[in-house]
Amino acid sequence: MNAINTPKQQPQSAYFLAETSNAVESHTLSVLVDNEPGVLARVIGLFSGRGYNIDSLTVSEVEHEKHLSRITIVTTATPMVIEQIRNQLGRLVPVHRVVDLSLEGRAVERELALIKVRGTGDHRVESLRLAEAFRARVIDATTESFIFELTGKGDKIDQFVTLMVPLGLVEVSRTGVAAISRGADAM
Amino acid sequence: MTRQMTGAEMVVQALIDQGVEHLFGYPGGAVLPIYDELFQQDKIQHILVRHEQGAGHAAEGYARSTGKPGVVLVTSGPGATNMVTALTDALMDSIPLVCITGQVPTHLIGNDAFQECDTVGITRPCTKHNWLVKRIEDLPRVLHEAFRIATTGRPGPVVVDIPKDIQFKSGTYENFKGSRQTAYQPRTKGDEGAIREAVRLMSGAKRPILYSGGGVINSGPDATRLLRQLVSLTNFPITSTLMGLGAYPASGANWMGMLGMHGTYEANLAMHDCDVMVCIGARFDDRITGRTDAFSPGSKKIHIDIDPSSINKNIRVDVPVVGDIAEVLAGMIRIWNEAHPKVDASALTGWWKTINQWRARKCLSYKPNRDVIMPQYAIERLYALTKGRNSYITTEVGQHQMWAAQYYGFEEPNRWMTSGGLGTMGYGLPAAIGVQVAHRDALVACIAGDASVLMNMQEMSTAVQHDLPVKIFILNNQYMGMVRQWQQLLHGNRLSHSYTEALPDFVKLADAYGCVGIRAEKPDELDDAIGEMIAVKRPVLFDCRVANLANCFPMIPSGKAHNEMLLADDISDADLGRAISKEGKVLV
Fold first, then answer.
1. Closest to B275 measured CA to CA, from B297, B255, B259
2. Is the N or the C terminus of chain A less surrounded, counting Cβ atoms within 10 Å?
3. ipTM of this predicted complex?
4. What is d(CA A155, CA A88) in angstroms, rounded to the nearest whole number?
5. Does the pLDDT at position A18 exceed 60?
6. On the CB side of A145, how many CA atoms lie within 13 Å of its CA?
7. Is some CB atom of chain B closer than 8 A to the CB atom of A14?
């Protein structure tokens, strides 16, 4: 009987001050929306207005003829709040579907980063060597700098960026997470 | 049928095709083409207000009392920003509104043009949906979609923002009424398995309670009928939120009174002690639950709601049923009748015995006074003298609103219009105007406070212009009573700016507006004065001078549970200041 929920901790309300929330979890939500003006503002406004977190957000049109965009949001919250986020997103008029990819358990996530590193001598050699180990590509080079392109899961990019800091990290640009479920089925 | 016409004509045609008979609005530069079209037709009656917020609340009252959407037409910039409070109010209370706003011409958008504002940006969080229509080709579809979205699923306000050049442009009009064009497809049919599980829990209940809300009224007359049927079928006690009053009659044997912060002793204790709670179209708002970790600790909870996001938002429930109240209740009754469940009759008898003991506490009793009109007495008399009439009640927000909910008995749905979620002072007077527009021959009274009523007092002029005989029954205690009560409870009775030193003379004010002013100062003159108010076929401002420092009880203080209520007769003024803990004081 899936209509029955196991009793869980009550959430906070205006009348409940004690901090006894469940542990927070990170979830990746895929949201299929009509690609119309203001739709991203609706999604972002929902998150800011209701006090939800956005750790990562990516959006792009995915089906041109049907004017559909796909928004991938990584958020952290208690399971009860994640369920709220899913339902609140589902309530927005231009939203077609909301899928919690983390609940499905079988999803791949990727992120792309462009990383600029400045250095000479040993630092320069070391950064190039690490880039090879991480399978980052060099997409621009001067005599004193590189721009690396790196694709992978977020923590892999985090790790690479951390390693670049002592070697002369200048700046990082990241796309945010794109995610899709494994297997043959669509969201 | 398609036809060539201008955008302004399309607006009027779409309203006619949607069956709109009344429109509340205020003209301005960016809606002049639409007003020009209105001038040249006679199917839609336009009610000219004095302030756009008044148009919004009037449309809310109209919608709430008829079940039809309220329609508003205002201009760009300040016209739109003045609507924001009414839109938010309608969103919180799930009232269907279609608001059409003018906008500066498309080529000026973003230029900080005269009377320009980002209407869709400003109204995005306070509408169910909104549109800026930049192409004439989109206008007919959007206008009809606006009505569908406002009225179906969980109802709410929508805004259609139409730039002035689009109103002049010509295009092809098509009547899209009834067509579904977008991803928006609300679910109305409840899950059969969940309904069965709910019935199973209900039939095994020893201490059940039905807790109904505004959703029953939004669902329509069928939902009310089925709710009453469910009560008689099960003999369960029933309580209701502020928004749900009237769905079950106050004279009904199973009625427990309103629940929540100012709910009755019996309703709140029954909520606390029940073993099965059936929440029907309500949302476990903080005014209902009190302290959530102590909310009805021993019960299994069933929650019927059309909006999935209402489920498990504040309170974890055991059996959620997402669907339209009427459809779900019909399913419940069918399954109950099929199953003929064997209920625990002796447990139910015991439960009713307990409830009757709580009822015997008479939590709404108050000390009568022969010299001063007690506010509770004023509502009791108003109720007694309007009972049995075709009457509608609206309220402003504050103590008088709670007293109205406690002491006025509502027998039918759609008869009670109040600002529940947002708590908008200034709602009641324009809402009464909207109700009266829809029900010309009914007695429409606004139970008001002296502070609230001044917030949209200008609309008396609207009532006079349109010959709407609304009765504004002001409980005048010269204070913002609820603010003063909270200051007494929370802030050592330091009455910071809650006393209105310079109130107008409401009788003279009535005279100035061209309506009727009546004053009652003593209990023994109240009945005659109310009688005069009812008899007069013109708008009335009734200045009912009541006890200045009366408090509204029962009350669940902030941060307390349902079984920790304050009752009028067991707390002295001196103790009031200590009733709320330090933690409770930071809450609203």
1. B297
2. N
3. 0.90
4. 29
5. no
6. 11
7. yes
